[in-house]
């Protein structure tokens, strides 16, 4: 796959710098979209592990809405994959083990730890969408990716607010 590298992956002096890949062919576009679909499947699996571990009904309802957002992303992105001659992935990848594992371990420590693990997972999903959103795409796809990146940011922001503002007014470790 040909790539146009515009930055570095990782952290430089505490600041996240993105490695941006701009698709140059239909095949590269399909690969990029499938990466997003996999990230959404990973998120769904982690949320489904988190929901039954939470004790607050409102938190469970909010996470269910996030799951629906991820399912909607998969459905719409799959259409673009097919339109570009590809086959959409239909499952999570091995990263789901790490994402789900953080949630399961957090479940032993309570709601705030579960939500903190989900916040960390959402950051990873945000990063994948941010990288993909830098590409030169047709207008409908560009708008869709911007909307989905906004969804992901809203998920992360809700999780950050929720884990910092506990019912007891305590400050918890922020999203990692």
Automatic annotation (TrEMBL):
Residues 31-132 form the DUF2383 domain. InterPro entries: DUF2383, Ferritin-like, Ferritin-like_SF. SUPFAM superfamilies: Ferritin-like. It comes from the Bacteria. Gene3D superfamilies: 1.20.1260.10. It holds the Pfam family DUF2383. This is PA2169 family four-helix-bundle protein.
């Amino acid at each position: 796959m040909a790539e146009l590298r515009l930055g570095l992956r990782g952290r430089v002096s505490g600041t996240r710098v993105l490695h941006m890949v701009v698709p140059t062919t239909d095949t590269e576009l399909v690969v990029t979209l499938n990466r997003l679909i996999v990230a959404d499947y990973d998120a769904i699996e982690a949320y489904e592990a988190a929901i039954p571990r939470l004790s607050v009904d409102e938190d469970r309802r909010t996470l269910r809405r996030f799951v629906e957002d991820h399912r909607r992303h998969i459905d719409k992105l799959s259409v673009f994959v097919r339109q570009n001659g590809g086959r959409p992935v239909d499952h999570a990848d091995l990263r789901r083990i790490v994402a789900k594992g953080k949630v399961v371990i957090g479940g032993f420590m309570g709601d705030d730890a579960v939500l903190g693990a989900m916040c960390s997972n959402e950051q990873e999903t945000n990063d994948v969408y941010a990288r993909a959103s830098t590409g030169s795409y047709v207008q409908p796809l560009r708008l869709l990716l911007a909307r989905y990146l906004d969804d992901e940011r809203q998920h992360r922001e809700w999780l950050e607010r929720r884990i910092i503002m506990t019912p007891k007014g305590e400050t918890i470790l922020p999203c990692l």
